[in-house]
Amino acid sequence: MFGYIVINKPELKVREYETYHSWYCGLCHALRARCGVAGQMSLSYEMTFLSLLLSSLGEEKPVTLRERCPVHPLRELVKRSTSCTDYCADMNVLLAYYDRLDDWKDDRNWKSRAAARALHRQVQRIRREYPRQANAVTDYVRELSRCEKEKVHNLDQAAGLTGRMLAEIFVRKEDFWSPRLRRIGYYLGKYIYLMDAYEDLP
């Protein structure tokens, strides 16, 4: 369901692209450190965007690392992160877990089931640390399943479920930015749902 919030690389200067890529690598690094290889394999563009967004709103100075990684062993990569990146890594895993379960439910895809099992222990930790966000995701899964069973044809209603779920994910903590972040998350969630639905058309 994710993978739609991507950069328009031809419009970026080299320096701008390298900055973006350093945050992408930073999230990848956080996923591996917090959730192992299974978490790292769930890396998404949406949470890279959120990591950049949340980090830009705070006063925390990013940690910058320069090191090689198994995927790119021949050259050193710059990795930038803040505590917001760790939060986004956890949200990435939470969303990936339910996405894999959905794949298993819909298609009986054994790879998806194995991937979900590999993330299960970390998801239990994330649910304890972020109950509001975790409840938003489980409520979304339940309501979307109900819409599918009842064959609801109101596209805005279905898209709004994704919007409400992502609105809560975009708010790490309640502060001055929370109303704006919820609004951004809500409309991005609706956009993602509509793009995913469009791609599913014959």
Describe it for me?
With 202 residues, the protein is mainly α. It is built from 7 helices and 2 strands, in the order H-H-E-E-H-H-H-H-H. It has a two-stranded antiparallel sheet with strand order 1-2. A hairpin with a 2-residue loop joins strand 1 and strand 2. Helix 1 packs across helix 3, helix 3 runs antiparallel to helix 4 and helix 5 runs antiparallel to helix 6. The longest helix is centred in the N-terminal third of the chain and has 27 residues. It starts with 13 loop residues before the first helix and ends with a helix. The mean pLDDT is 90.
SSE order and pairing:
Elements lengths: L13 H27 L4 H13 L5 E7 L2 E10 L1 H25 L2 H20 L1 H20 L4 H16 L7 H23 L2
Antiparallel strand pairs: 1-2
Helix pairs in contact: 1-2, 1-3, 1-4, 2-3, 3-4, 3-5, 4-5, 5-6, 6-7
